């Protein structure tokens, strides 16, 4: 700590620093040096700066002494003691790599002290040391930790295969790494166990016990421990055996005694237990000339296709298929049936070997024993007898008995039916028919019998060494006894509050012997009530029908019980009670509660629909109108959601909050809403609730112990709107679908009967009037009146000019009073006038009495009176002269409610200058705009009107015509024609006038542009404002133009008038013809007329000739004359066709100016043959109440325009249902929709240019069928996190299932974006789909029919799995009431499944039988409902003798079966056998 320097010395001295702890460059140590010296020394004021000092880090280890077993490895953690200044790479050096192997280098990041792992693996027994070298900069630079970890690698065990030699088992080859040995499940087979030898690497020093350990005892069971003695044999044999199921296990060895092997554990012997085969029967009896069968099933799903080879110990006894195939792609139970066919008498054993997948190498030896024997032939194997009758049948041996045999006959149900005799003889050497009589037990022992059911007769033969000895034929004949019970019209009853009752019909199956009283009672009379009793008179039989009426009382489920309690001598006395499940559905309450409603024209009726009882599940409500063309619901489908916001989970609890019990805690009857009155703790997880219609101060959990019992109550209501479409009466049905059984399938038929009143029609239909204008309105009933109908019309304001409602109408009825439309035969049109008195919109309200219009009260006509503009002045006092101007002012009469734009238009736009637009601001009460009008050029003399067109706000569409008038007067010549024609040899007049009265004579000159065509006769002298005519003479054929000029004395009004710019186009005509037609179509034998006129006056008598181009045309007369005088206007020729041909007519003239003028092809004539009207067509029914009519073109298509098609339900077509015109290019047409269950006759005829042809009618009528392919009532249920159950109803027509049922249904599951998940076909109306979990999905269901491959639609529904995935925190424990069942053939047995706690979601259990031919579940799926601890029943049906295993397989969730999930079932023969 201190150094001393002598005066005058320059000696170098060292400072020694010792390591204490590690540091970093970011937080270094500092070395401080202080100098002490005498005053006056040169070092007396010297200071030395602190010297930074960084001490190196080191590495820490989770263990510094590592012990590694043989075949094992160890992991060691390493980490720096301080954060490195930079990244550090640590390499590991091994002192002896033959002892252990070490994984690669390790890297630590700068500034981090995270732990890293490296592995030390065993290679050989011995010891070694590990050193560590760091490569880095900073505080770990050059750090070396030598021999930091000691590694000890222990010795272990060796395993050898056991081989059987001359002196027994001996060690064979050593087991290598990766080698796998297989075990099989057949316990009688040596392949179910295997022997091995275990040895130590070194000799043991003390007695050592080695324990054989299996990693999975369920599939491989290890043998007993072995003991090694010092100096004894190094190897000992051990055994492994097949466990309880197929899987893989690893066998290891552990020494648990003292000595050099104390604590040693090693070994990795791989054992695979193969899956197994199960057999429906291990013994099969094959009768003579018959066959037997059994089923082979796989216990585990195959990982690839599996082939099973079947071998017989004696192939001469029975034949069978030697190969069974199991596909890995099969979705059903993996089972295959083996059919054995009789060859000869004897016995044999069947063995099985498998190849492929996880079954490869499986062998079962002598697994099934087969026997063959002769049998019996029966005249009948099924019989039906009455409850007190008997019946006989015959039986004979199928092989000649070699010895006399006794044939024993027994019944499986002697209390139902039994044979009259129990023993019969089979004679030796012959085949005899034996008659056996079977009687109902009730016919002999009426007090000890069952009156209905089935009994099976079994046969067993006993003989002394004969071929029929030990022959048995079990359940060979079925005897059915028909009960004296009742046949019911319905097996379930559905009650709705409306109409409030249902009827069930019953009929006796057996003739009633005495008057019998049948009693009916609802088991829960709060749900329904029934007619107490009815009497069936003696003699009633199956054709007699009686009925009970069951009435609705309240919502719920119960059963209707039918019993017979007297008289005691009735054969029906005390039969088993009949229970009919009855559901009284919940419905919706309506406000207003009117069920018969009148709807005014063009209006709607609104109803509020509210659930009658609280919702537990969401409901879907469909509203259907009986006639959407009368009443329409714009929105026909609604959904109401059950309260889903859990209090304490989704929302915090609060005093005053309205709540309802969540669906998991709701019971029946349902608990309605209540109010939270108190919060019981600071966690807000327990509250007190007062129920509106229930107990008070009830405690509920809102999160306590993980329970959420309350949901926030949010009452939901449907606002239903029913729109008037047209006049008529219709009813509306309301249907409900839900997972809640109290709402599902609830139907309110004819909930509302709606009378849509007829309207009146108006002309015009829309009335928008300009300010202060008047209009006449015609009013006509849309439907003929049926009685004296009086209509009172009044007015009511809707909106005033400032968009406020006024009390005074804006229209004045000039002739509005009570209008009498009389009776149906009277006048049906009335009119009245409406005058606008103010701006705004008013309605004409009609109130009618009488006939179909009784009750009319609706605003029938809206009248809009537009505002206007005030113009000052309206007209200037003097005309507007050239080069002058004037001003007028425009202001709105009403305050604008928006920006108003006014467009100014004038009829003198070419000569008047004025602004084009004016603008007015909104909501300014007093405002005006000035308009300046100027006139600068003297062009015409006019009275000009300036009109205003407005747009914007309440001025939209306002027009003020002639708002401002301006008179413009300028001297000018007016030419009153723009073109003129001049006929040959004639003069035409050109009208002209002066626009102002001249103060002197004005000369008007006309100049022709071509005097050789037309020329003026003379000039005009005009001194007034009358019209004068300038004469224009015809010179020759052609065109020219006529221009004008004027002359006047100086100083007169017209002396400075501009030269007229008017030009008249002159056409000088030449002679020609005018014909009434240019083309004719005439039928052969028919005629037509051609009229001919001359286009110019002739100058002499003129002859006209009409010449045909073909003899097929006849012209009468061949020529005619046009006289020079007499006012003749034209001539007419008659044209006739004698044969079918196309020709033309040539017109020629002779005389005067028309001489030798000819017109070739003046008229083209087509002579047509008489067409045939016979049509070929066919009619066929289409789905959707349609008929398709296909038409072939007739042989003659001349003049064919199209076809007329009619349909009628009568052969004479006295009532026409459809009348349709189609074009000739349309070969096929669809008629409809037509009336269902009707048959229509079809007829058709051609439509030609000359008129319609004759009708061609069908011989037979075409039936109408309707098949909507869209399924109904699509609904779904989330059964678990991964299962969705989808149900639907078949397509229906008028509420009834169509007779043409679908062949199948296609069900598709998609993501909401359209991505396809899965698709399936089913013939059922229910299916269970597997969903991917949390997703938004779409389910599509479509009906497929073979009637029309193009008719295919789908219904879709969207679901969202938005709630968090539900997983059980602990397994749901399910208990089976029994796991072993023994029962006789033709019986039912049951197993109860009970959940220990309520499932969080619906628990789905699927029931599989290993031998469904022997026993099978009646319902393959049962569901344990979420939130319920109610048990469910598995019903098993026993069919034939055999041994089966019933597997209860859960779908989704975390399940546990404490007493097992399999049921062993033994189905035996009847106890009588």
Describe the overall structure.
The chain has 1473 residues and is mainly β. The protein has 1 helix and 125 strands. The strands form 29 sheets. Strands 100, 101, 103, 104, 105 and 106 form a 6-stranded antiparallel β-sheet that branches. The termini are far apart.
Summary of the model, kept short:
By secondary structure, this protein is an all-beta fold. The protein is built from one helix and 125 strands.
Give the overall shape, derived from the CA principal axes. extended
Tally of extended strands?
125
Q: How many DSSP helices?
A: 1
Largest sheet properties: 6 strands, antiparallel
- Give the rounded overall mean pLDDT: 84
Binned, the helix content reads under 10%
Structural class: mainly beta
Main features:
0% helix; mainly beta; 1473 residues; 52% strand; five-stranded mixed β-sheet
Spell out the blueprint of helices and strands.
Layout: E1 29-31, E2 51-53, E3 59-61, E4 65-68, E5 73-80, E6 88-94, E7 100-102, E8 106-108, E9 116-122, E10 126-135, E11 144-153, E12 157-165, E13 168-174, E14 180-183, E15 193-200, E16 208-214, E17 220-222, E18 226-228, E19 235-242, E20 247-255, E21 265-273, E22 277-279, E23 283-287, E24 291-298, E25 306-312, E26 318-319, E27 323-326, E28 335-342, E29 346-355, E30 363-373, E31 376-378, E32 382-386, E33 390-397, E34 405-411, E35 417-419, E36 423-426, E37 434-440, H1 441-444, E38 453-463, E39 472-482, E40 486-488, E41 493-495, E42 501-508, E43 516-522, E44 528-530, E45 533-536, E46 546-552, E47 556-566, E48 578-584, E49 588-591, E50 596-599, E51 604-611, E52 619-625, E53 631-632, E54 637-640, E55 658-661, E56 674-679, E57 686-691, E58 698-701, E59 710-712, E60 718-724, E61 728-738, E62 746-756, E63 760-763, E64 767-769, E65 774-781, E66 790-799, E67 811-813, E68 818-820, E69 830-836, E70 840-849, E71 857-865, E72 869-872, E73 884-892, E74 900-906, E75 912-913, E76 917-920, E77 929-935, E78 942-951, E79 959-968, ...
Parallel strand pairs: 4-11, 14-21, 23-30, 32-39, 41-48, 50-62, 64-71, 81-88, 90-97, 116-124, 117-125
Antiparallel strand pairs: 1-2, 3-5, 5-9, 6-8, 6-10, 7-9, 10-11, 12-13, 12-15, 15-19, 16-18, 16-20, 17-19, 20-21, 22-24, 24-28, 25-27, 25-29, 26-28, 29-30, 31-33, 33-37, 34-36, 34-38, 35-37, 38-39, 40-42, 42-46, 43-45, 43-47, 44-46, 47-48, 49-51, 51-60, 52-54, 52-61, 53-60, 55-56, 55-59, 56-57, ...
């Amino acid at each position: 700590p201190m150094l001393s320097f002598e005066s005058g010395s320059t000696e170098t001295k060292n400072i020694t620093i010792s390591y204490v702890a590690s540091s970093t460059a970011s937080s270094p140590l500092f070395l401080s040096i202080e100098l002490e010296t005498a005053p006056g020394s040169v070092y007396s004021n010297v200071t030395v700066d602190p010297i930074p000092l960084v001490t190196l880090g080191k590495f820490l280890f989770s263990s510094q002494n590592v012990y590694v077993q043989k075949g094992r490895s160890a992991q060691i953690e390493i980490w720096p003691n301080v954060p490195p200044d930079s990244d550090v790479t640590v390499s590991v050096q091994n002192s002896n790599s033959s002892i252990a192997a070490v994984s690669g280098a390790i890297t630590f990041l700068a500034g981090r002290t995270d732990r890293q792992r490296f592995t030390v693996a065993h290679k050989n027994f011995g010891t070694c040391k590990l050193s560590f070298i760091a490569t880095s900069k900073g505080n770990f630079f050059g750090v070396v930790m030598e021999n930091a970890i000691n590694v000890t690698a222990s010795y272990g065990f060796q395993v050898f295969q056991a081989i059987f030699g001359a002196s027994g088992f001996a060690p064979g080859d050593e087991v290598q790494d990766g080698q796998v040995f297989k075990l099989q499940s057949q316990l009688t087979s040596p392949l179910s166990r295997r022997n091995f030898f275990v040895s130590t690497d070194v000799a043991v020093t003390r007695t050592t016990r080695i324990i054989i350990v299996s990693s999975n005892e369920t599939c491989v069971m290890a043998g007993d421990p072995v003991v090694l003695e010092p100096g004894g044999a190094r190897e000992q044999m051990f055994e492994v055996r097949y466990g309880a199921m197929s899987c893989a296990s690893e066998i290891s060895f552990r020494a648990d005694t003292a000595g050099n092997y104390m604590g040693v554990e090693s070994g990795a012997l791989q054992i695979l237990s193969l899956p197994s085969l199960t057999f429906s029967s291990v013994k099969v009896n094959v009768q003579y000339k018959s066959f037997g069968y059994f089923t082979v099933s796989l216990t585990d799903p195959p990982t690839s296709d599996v082939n099973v080879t079947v071998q017989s110990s004696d192939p001469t006894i029975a034949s069978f298929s030697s190969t069974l195939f199991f596909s890995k792609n099969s979705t059903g139970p993996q089972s295959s049936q083996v059919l054995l066919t009789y060859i000869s008498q004897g016995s044999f054993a069947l063995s099985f070997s498998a190849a492929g997948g996880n079954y490869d190498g499986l062998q079962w030896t002598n697994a099934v024993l087969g026997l063959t024997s002769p049998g019996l032939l029966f005249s009948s194997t099924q019989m039906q007898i009455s409850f007190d009758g008997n019946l006989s049948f015959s039986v004979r041996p199928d092989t000649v008995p070699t010895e006399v045999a006794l044939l024993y006959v027994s019944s499986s149900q002697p209390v139902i039916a039994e044979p009259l005799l129990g023993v019969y003889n089979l004679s030796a050497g012959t085949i005899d028919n034996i008659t056996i009589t079977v009687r109902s037990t009730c016919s002999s022992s009426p007090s000890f019998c069952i009156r209905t059911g089935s009994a099976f007769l079994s046969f067993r033969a006993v003989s002394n060494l004969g071929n029929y000895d030990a022959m048995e034929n079990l359940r060979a004949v079925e005897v059915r006894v028909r009960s004296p019970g009742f046949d019911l019209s319905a097996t379930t009853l559905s009650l709705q509050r409306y109409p409030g009752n249902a009827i069930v019909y019953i009929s006796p199956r057996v003739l009633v012997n005495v008057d019998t009283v049948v009693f009916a009672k609802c088991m829960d009379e709060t749900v329904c009530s029934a007619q107490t009793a009815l009497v069936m008179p003696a003699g009633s039989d199956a054709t007699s029908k009686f009925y009970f009426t069951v009435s609705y009382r309240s919502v719920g489920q119960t059963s209707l019980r039918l019993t017979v309690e007297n008289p005691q001598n009735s054969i029906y006395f005390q039969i088993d009670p009949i229970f009919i499940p009855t559901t009284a559905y919940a419905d919706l309450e309506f406000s207003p509660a009117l069920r018969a409603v009148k709807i005014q024209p063009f209006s709607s009726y609104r109803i509020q629909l509210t659930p009658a009882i609280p919702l537990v599940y969401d409901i879907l409500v469909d509203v259907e109108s009986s006639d959407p063309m009368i009443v329409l619901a714009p929105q026909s489908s609604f959904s109401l959601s059950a309260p889903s916001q859990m209090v304490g989970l989704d929302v915090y609890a609060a005093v005053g909050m309205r709540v309802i019990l969540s669906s998991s805690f709701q019971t029946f009857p349902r608990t309605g809403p209540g109010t939270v009155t108190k919060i019981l703790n600071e966690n807000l997880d327990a509250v007190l609730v007062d129920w509106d219609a229930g107990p008070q101060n009830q405690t509920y959990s809102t999160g306590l112990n993980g329970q959420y019992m309350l949901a926030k109550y949010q009452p939901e209501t449907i606002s239903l709107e029913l729109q008037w479409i047209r006049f008529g009466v219709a009813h509306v049905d309301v249907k409900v679908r839900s997972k809640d059984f109290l709402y599902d399938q609830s139907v309110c038929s004819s909930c509302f009967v709606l009378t849509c009143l007829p309207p009146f029609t108006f002309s015009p239909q829309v009335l928008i009037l300009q300010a202060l204008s008047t209009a006449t309105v015609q009013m006509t009933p849309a439907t003929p009146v049926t009685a004296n109908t009086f209509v009172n019309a009044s007015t009511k304001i809707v909106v005033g000019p400032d968009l406020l409602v006024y009390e005074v109408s804006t229209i004045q009825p000039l002739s509005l009073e009570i209008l009498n439309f009389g009776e149906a035969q009277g006048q049906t049109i009335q009119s009245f006038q409406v005058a606008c008195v103010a701006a705004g919109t008013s309605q004409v309200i009609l109130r009618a009495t009488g006939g179909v219009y009784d009750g009319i009260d609706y605003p029938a006509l809206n009248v809009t009176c537009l505002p206007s503009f005030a113009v000052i002045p309206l007209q200037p006092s003097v005309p507007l002269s050239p080069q002058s101007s004037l001003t007028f002012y425009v202001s709105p009469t009403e305050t604008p409610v928006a920006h108003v734009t006014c467009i100014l238009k004038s009829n003198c736009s070419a000569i008047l200058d004025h602004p084009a637009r004016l603008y007015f601001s909104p909501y300014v009460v007093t405002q005006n705009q000035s308009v300046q009008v100027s006139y600068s050029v003297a062009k015409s003399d006019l009275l000009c009107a300036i009109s205003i067109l407005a747009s914007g706000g309440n001025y939209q569409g306002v027009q003020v015509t002639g708002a401002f008038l301006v008179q413009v007067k300028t001297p000018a010549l007016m030419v009153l024609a723009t073109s003129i024609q001049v006929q040959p040899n004639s003069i035409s007049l050109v009208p002209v006038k002066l626009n102002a009265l001249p103060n002197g004579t004005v000369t008007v000159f006309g100049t022709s542009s071509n005097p050789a065509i037309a020329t003026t006769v003379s000039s005009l002298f005009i001194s007034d404002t009358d019209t004068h005519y300038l004469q224009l003479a015809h010179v020759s054929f052609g065109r020219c133009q006529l221009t004008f000029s004027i002359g006047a004395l100086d100083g007169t009004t017209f002396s400075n008038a501009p030269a007229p710019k008017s030009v008249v186009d002159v056409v000088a005509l030449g002679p020609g013809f005018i014909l009434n037609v240019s083309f004719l179509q005439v039928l052969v034998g028919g005629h037509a007329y051609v009229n001919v006129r001359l286009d110019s006056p002739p100058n002499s008598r003129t002859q006209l000739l009409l010449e045909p181009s073909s003899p097929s045309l006849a012209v009468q007369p061949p020529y005619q004359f046009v006289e020079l005088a007499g006012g003749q206007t034209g001539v007419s020729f008659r044209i006739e066709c004698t044969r079918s041909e196309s020709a033309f007519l040539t017109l020629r003239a002779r005389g005067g100016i028309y001489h030798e003028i000819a017109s070739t092809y003046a008229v083209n004539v087509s002579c047509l043959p008489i067409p045939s009207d016979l049509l070929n067509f066919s009619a066929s029914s289409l789905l959707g109440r349609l008929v398709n009519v296909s038409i072939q073109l007739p042989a003659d298509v001349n003049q064919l325009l199209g076809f007329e098609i009619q349909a009628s339900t009568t052969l004479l077509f006295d009532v026409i249902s459809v009348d349709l015109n189609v074009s000739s290019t349309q070969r096929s047409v669809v008629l409809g929709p037509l009336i269902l269950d009707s048959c229509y006759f079809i007829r058709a005829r051609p439509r030609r240019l000359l008129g319609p042809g004759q009708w061609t009618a069908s011989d037979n009528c075409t039936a109408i069928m309707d098949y909507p392919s869209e399924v109904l009532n699509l609904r779904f249920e989330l059964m678990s996190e991964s299962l969705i159950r989808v149900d639907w109803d078949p397509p229906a027509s008028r509420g009834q299932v169509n007779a043409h049922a679908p062949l199948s249904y296609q069900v598709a599951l998609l993501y909401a974006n359209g991505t396809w998940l899965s698709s399936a076909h089913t013939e059922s109306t229910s299916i269970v789909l597997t969903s991917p979990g949390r997703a938004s999905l779409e389910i599509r269901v479509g009906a497929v029919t073979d009637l029309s491959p193009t008719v295919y639609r789908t219904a879709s529904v969207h679901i969202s799995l938005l709630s968090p995935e539900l997983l059980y925190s602990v397994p749901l424990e399910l208990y089976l009431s029994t796991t072993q069942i023994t029962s006789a053939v033709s019986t039912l047995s049951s197993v109860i499944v009970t959940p220990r706690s309520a499932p969080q979601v619906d628990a789905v259990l699927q029931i599989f039988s290993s031998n469904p031919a022997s026993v099978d579940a009646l319902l393959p799926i049962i569901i344990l409902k979420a939130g319920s601890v109610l048990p469910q029943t598995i019903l098993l049906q026993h069919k034939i003798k055999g041994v089966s295993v019933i597997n209860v397989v859960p779908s989704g969730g975390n399940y546990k079966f404490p007493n097992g999930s399999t049921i062993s079932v033994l189905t035996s023969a009847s106890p009588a056998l």
